[in-house]
Amino acid sequence: MNLSMTVKKSFGAFTLSTDVTVSGDRVGIFGVSGSGKSTMVSMLAGLLRPDSGEIVLDGEYLFSSDRRINVPPEKRRIAMVFQQHSLFSHLNVMNNLLYGFKRCSPDHRSIDFDALVNVLNLEELLGREVCNLSGGEKQRVALGRAILANPRLLLMDEPLSALDDSLRFQIIPYLRSVSEHFGIPYLFISHSLIEMRLMTDSALVFEKGAMVEQVSSEQLARNRMGQNQAGYINLMELGCPSESAGLFAYPWGTGQLLLSAGSDRDKSMAELSSKDIILFKQHPEAISARNLLECSVSSLFRSGRKIGVELECAGNTLIAEVVQDAVNELNITPGSTLYAAVKASAFRILPG
After folding, report:
1. Percent with pLDDT over 70 in the chain
2. Smallest Cα–Cα separation from 314: which of 292, 346, 334?
3. Cα–Cα distances in angstroms (integers) from residue 28 to residues 130, 270, 319, in the given order
4. Which end of the chain has the lower number of beta carbons within 10 A, N or C?
5. pLDDT value of position 174
6. Contact 43, 209 (CB under 8 A)
7. Predicted pLDDT at 141
8. What is the Rg, in whole angstroms, of the alpha carbon atoms belonging to the chain?
9. What DSSP designation does 326 have?
């Protein structure tokens, strides 16, 4: 996807004025409510007409006030998945899925119905009525309906915000696998840093109707560590655990971690806040925390009043959070060795 948008749109006291040029298949749009995210994607989809400017997608003008071009939404081949699933209650799952497919030009029908149903694990739902679906099932059907319209670009506007944590982390793998399997680029709109990191490679950051930053999703999370009450969230891929002295030992990189919570999955994802990592300059003689990792400092970065310490531990990366006085007292510099202590209860296994 290659997208260029130089547009203006006013609603009373609010004005969106932005100049965006972005390339990539997994792009995020990040910002708080009211920052202009949804307004931007609505103009891109053709649901909202800009006051002025132009929109160019993969070399094609979708809108230009100077050239008097405004391609109708149905001809832009851009599909949307919204916060609310917006399924047709009078149609069953099968007919909801086929709604966009039947209205797609035969020349663009490249996505196989059975293949999509398999990727989204919808086989057992095809005959069901929409009212008999769970929230996660409805969102999978809505995603399938959008994909079967055979779009060249998929817009996902806060598609997970109406779901609880359990459903949210169950849906994310489906969102990613559909795009990867069928080669459809997407713009993913969210105000969640975790969703940005799991779903996108880069992010456009919006504030008060303007794009203020264009960074990698990882850098976005680091930049906001000092502003975020939860700090920086380390996302850690863990192996299948075994019981160990009342705790659970998970393989992690070349080492292992002891957690309070167990899992019956072969692979799990866990969260660990940068605030829950305690650093020592020397190996402590005794400590109550069950995880003590010898780490090498890769780099340091500033985020607000906090300093992020990037650590290499057991072949993986961890971000710890300290204040400047701690950096000085521990003499933390790139290449130095530190010991990171983490309680077994500090980790959170993500649903999946």
Report:
1. 100
2. 292
3. 29, 22, 22
4. C
5. 87
6. no
7. 92
8. 23
9. H
Integer angstrom CA distances of residue 62 from 65, 74, 157, 330: 10, 12, 20, 56
pTM of the model: 0.89
Quick one: pLDDT at residue 95?
93
Euclidean distance between CA atoms 39 and 111, whole angstroms:
29
Q: How confident is the model at residue 164 (pLDDT cuts 50, 70, 90)?
A: confident
- The residue length of the chain stands at 352
Pick the closest to residue 323 from 218, 225, 221 (CA basis). Answer: 225
d(CA 212, CA 228): 18
Residue 85, both tokens:
């699933």
Rounded-to-integer distance, Cα 242 and Cα 281, Å? 31
Kindly report the backbone phi and psi dihedral angles of residue 307, in degrees, each rounded to the nearest multiple of 5, phi listed first: -115, 125
Can you list the alpha helix ranges (DSSP code H) found in 250-317?
Answer: none
HSE (side-chain half, CA atoms, 13 Å) at 304: 14
Burial of 311 (C-beta count, 10 Å sphere; 0-12/13-18/19+): buried
Pair of tokens at residue 136: 């996660």
Q: Give the model's confidence band at 273: pLDDT under 50 very low, under 70 low, under 90 confident, else very high.
A: very high
Do the beta carbons of residue 321 and residue 306 sit within 8 Å? yes
Span 121-145, mean pLDDT? 91
The closest alpha carbon to 150, from 114, 110, 120, 103, belongs to: 110
d(CA 102, CA 81): 18
Asked if pLDDT for residue 108 goes beyond 90, the answer is no
- Rounded to 10 degrees, the C-alpha dihedral 330/336/337/339 comes to 40
Model confidence at 105: pLDDT above 90: no
The gap from C-alpha 109 to its chain's centroid, in whole angstroms, comes to 28
Q: CA–CA separation, 216 vs 19, rounded Å?
A: 18
Alpha-carbon gap, residue 118 to 113, rounded angstroms? 9
Per-residue model confidence (pLDDT) at position 339: 98
- Residue linked to tokens 């008999």: 132
User: ∠ CA 79-101-161 to the nearest 5 degrees?
Assistant: 35
